[in-house]
Protein 1
Amino acid sequence: MGKIQDGKKINAYMSPIRLGLIGAGVIGQRHLRAIEARPDITVAGVADISATAEEVAERYSIPFYSTAKSMIHSLQLDGMIVATPTEHHASATIESLLAGRHVLVEKPMVGTLEEAKQIIDVARENQCHVLVGHQRRYYELTTRAREIVQQGEIGQLVCVTGQWNMRKHDSYYDPDWRKQWRAGPILTNLVHEIDLLRYICGDIHSISAETAHSVQGFEKEDAAAMIMRFENGALGTFLLSDQTPSPWSWELATGENAAFPPTSQNAWRIMGTMGALDFPNLTLWKHHGTPPDWRYQIDRRRVQSTWQDAYIRQIEHFANIIRGVEEPCIDAEDAMATVAATLAVFESAAQGNRIVLSREAVV
Ligand SMILES: NC(=O)c1ccc[n+]([C@@H]2O[C@H](COP(=O)([O-])OP(=O)(O)OC[C@H]3O[C@@H](n4cnc5c(N)ncnc54)[C@H](O)[C@@H]3O)[C@@H](O)[C@H]2O)c1
């Protein structure tokens, strides 16, 4: 590449980007902190319905709007971050796309497949990108695990087992909306795991699941158990509960969230015909001998990876999508497949059936 082209590319990566934030609660403020690390990215407006969010906007010296519509139509913006509760994701995203803005929408992208299809159609019609906030995809340890599995380092993938078991604090459930099914651990937490399972192990073909409500007695589930078959023939199991104190979860394994002291215990085990991988601490297990069977010593090796702030990487990626120099690493179609697999957990538990995911939702 010649000097002029190089210069153009550097300029493209640094051109200023102006964003609007819809919803300045817990995760909205996490985005604001990530953006502080990037002088080329500015949040030019915050839209929220609460007085607390207005105080947040004041603290950051950002103009505040009481509706997303008024902000979108008052400001020159390149893109929007949608960080409202999930039931408002579709309306805020569609409003932004109709105004020609690219969107970074929090996970889960939506709570229904109909809403997912609407977002995909409106994004296409308005030639805008949608990036979905599955931030775990940006960690180097995720990339390493994906390479190890997909490049055959543990041989042919045969099975994977994982868990997410934590106990949320009781006051978390004070707001009524948190007691409802849309705010339960399947749509809030399992959706992250399913997205990573798809990203690392491949698309999911079918799911059987059971859910339990025996601890809190709310509409939302206390626990879920699932069995999966992947498109590549591998099998998987996963256990989830937000009522079980334990060291086995992504958050405690990685220390991603400063509010939860880390344990560095693993959450998943991935097994192939040539070896196995503990995840996310990336311990690779292989027998000495050839073939690597049970007669030989099994050795462990720690695969190195560096830890970076995924929210900063995500916002850099979003800015580069807006600049036209990168494509979304998880777009609305891909996120719809994650939502479809997550919703299949509810469907299977309710019907007592195995749910085969439609091709439409896995491509
Ligand atoms: N990526 C992650 O790891 C992660 C972590 C936490 C939350 N989330 C997701 O982010 C979303 C928000 O979660 P949260 O924990 O920040 O919730 P929150 O309740 O802390 O914040 C939501 C904010 O949106 C505002 N709001 C509600 N309705 C609105 C509307 N119609 N227009 C504008 N603002 C509105 C609320 O007043 C509040 O300030 C959820 O979808 C959640 O699943 C993602």
Protein 2
Amino acid sequence: MRKFVLCMCMMIVVASSCNKDDVITIDFDDKYYRAATQTSASECSAVLEYMPAPGQFIGDKKTGGFTGEELTASAANEYAAARLDEQKFVSLGGFGGYMVVAFDHSIDNSEGYDIAVAGNAFEGSSEPAVVWVMQDKNGDGKANDGWYELKGSEFESDKTLRNYSVTYYRPKKDCSAVHWSDNLGGEGTIDYLAAYHSQPSYYPAWITSDSYTLSGSCLEARNYDTSGNGTHWVQPSYGWGYADNYSAVDWVDKVGDRDVKANLLDIANAIGDDGESVELKYIDFVKIQTAVNAKSGWLGELSAEVLGVYDYNLIIAK
Ligand SMILES: [Ca+2]
Ligand SMILES: [Ca+2]
Ligand SMILES: [Ca+2]
């Protein structure tokens, strides 16, 4: 129906082109809208970019599922896509690490939730990621059109930092911590956890530069050691609006009839650079990005995991 309306509009534009007063403008937002069809997949169709921060699962051939052949950006994207196909986790590493996915149709901003992001959160283990959305405004299939953050429960908090940046430095020797510095004068390390993840480096193998910077929104770290001796770390949940977050509001054990544990997100929460609400009828790309800069002793850095990204509307409709 949408396509039909668009065709009619275009015909009217052509038909009325001789009369300047009658020109009908087509909503720019609708120009490259791709309506879902019967054959559209609810799962994301491609990983356009996998850019994790350093972390204990990056390069890990056991639990992380890397082969050691992820030596280019495209090989890294293929790794992430294959993991999602198998519904296995893809780690985003520490703060700022992200993944960008595409769909074979546009995701409508319908009433209520629109997107489901599967994670591995559980009680006491939330590693929140901010979810961003983008419309393919120029219709080239690339995520080069401007991101909108989906605001969550911490958006109004004065502990939340927007435009926070962390630069990670390649370790000079194997089996050592990854140092970082941030844009507020802070510094620290992603620790090397020899007992659990013994790959030589937690720095992504396909990144050729000796440092790289990741930027995004950073939430207050709330993890703490409840034992007093460093043995029992708790990573509490946040209110709502984040991925890999054991939220009382939007974390579900099932998405439709599927056994998928996920957070549900609403495109209506999209905001622009200065925090104002942005009304989007649909989106084409989703970015999920680790949103805390913290570590929990022997558990290591907090790093969001993603096991799948879905068009929620499509699952519910079927
Ligand atoms: Ca919605
Ligand atoms: Ca997790
Ligand atoms: Ca584009």
